C-alpha cells in the first residue's frame, strides 16, 4: 500500500519511524491543537507506530498514513483516516513536522489520501474537524474543497480549556468536480 505523489510517498508506518514521530509530536507548536501533550515520549511513539502499522486503509476503523519526503526518505508527517463501518464515509486529520509546514506538503498528502478515498474506495463523504483557532488547518481543508458545515461552541475540553471546533465536509461529487 503506497501512494506516491510528486514529492511524497504515503505508506504504512514502520518500527524505524518511532523516533521521528516522537520528535515532531514533541514540538509544542505541532502539539498545540492536537489531543496529545508535548513531549510525546519515545516509548509512546513505539506503541503508536505499532498500532498504526496494524491497521488497514480498506477496513472500518483507524488508519494512519506515514508521509515520507521521497527525496530524503524521511518521515515528515502523518495523515489519519477513520473509515466508518458503512465504508462510505470517513474522517481525516493530519500532522506535519514544523520544518515541513507551509511548503505544500500537507495539501499534497491530504489530497492524495482524498483521491484514494473517493476514486479507489468510492466514499460518499469525508469530514474533518479542527480547533477553531487552528486557522492553517481550516485553510488547508478549504483549499482542498471542504465546505465549512458548522461551529461547535466550547465542544472539546482539552489541555485545561474548552475549545470551539470547526466541522468540515467534502462530498465525492465535489471532489470529482474540481478543476
From TrEMBL:
List the Gene Ontology MF annotations in alphabetical order.
acyltransferase activity, transferring groups other than amino-acyl groups
At the top level, the lineage of the source is Bacteria
Domain N-acetyltransferase, by residue range, is 8-173
- What are the protein's UniProt keywords? Transferase
What organism is the protein native to? Actinoplanes lobatus
Keyword Transcription regulation assigned: no
Q: Keyword Ribosomal protein: yes or no?
A: no
Protein name listed in UniProt:
N-acetyltransferase
Amino acid at each position: 500500500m503506497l501512494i506516491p505523489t510528486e514529492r511524497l510517498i504515503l505508506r504504512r508506518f514502520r518500527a524505524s519511524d518511532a523516533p521521528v514521530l516522537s520528535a515532531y509530536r514533541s514540538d509544542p507548536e505541532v502539539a498545540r491543537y492536537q489531543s496529545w501533550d508535548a513531549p510525546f515520549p519515545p516509548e509512546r511513539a513505539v506503541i503508536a507506530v505499532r498500532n498504526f502499522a496494524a491497521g488497514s486503509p480498506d477496513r472500518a476503523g483507524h488508519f494512519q498514513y506515514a508521509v515520507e519526503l521521497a527525496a530524503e526518505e524521511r518521515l515528515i508527517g502523518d495523515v489519519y483516516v477513520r473509515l466508518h463501518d458503512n465504508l462510505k464515509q470517513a474522517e481525516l486529520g493530519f500532522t506535519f513536522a514544523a520544518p515541513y509546514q507551509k511548503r505544500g506538503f500537507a495539501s499534497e498528502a491530504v489530497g492524495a489520501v482524498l483521491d484514494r478515498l473517493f476514486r479507489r474506495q468510492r466514499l460518499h463523504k469525508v469530514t474533518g474537524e479542527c480547533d477553531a483557532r487552528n486557522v492553517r488547518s481550516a485553510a488547508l481543508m478549504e483549499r482542498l474543497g471542504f465546505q465549512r458545515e458548522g461551529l461547535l461552541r466550547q465542544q472539546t475540553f482539552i489541555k485545561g480549556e474548552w475549545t470551539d471546533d470547526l466541522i468540515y465536509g467534502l462530498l465525492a461529487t465535489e471532489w470529482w468536480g474540481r478543476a
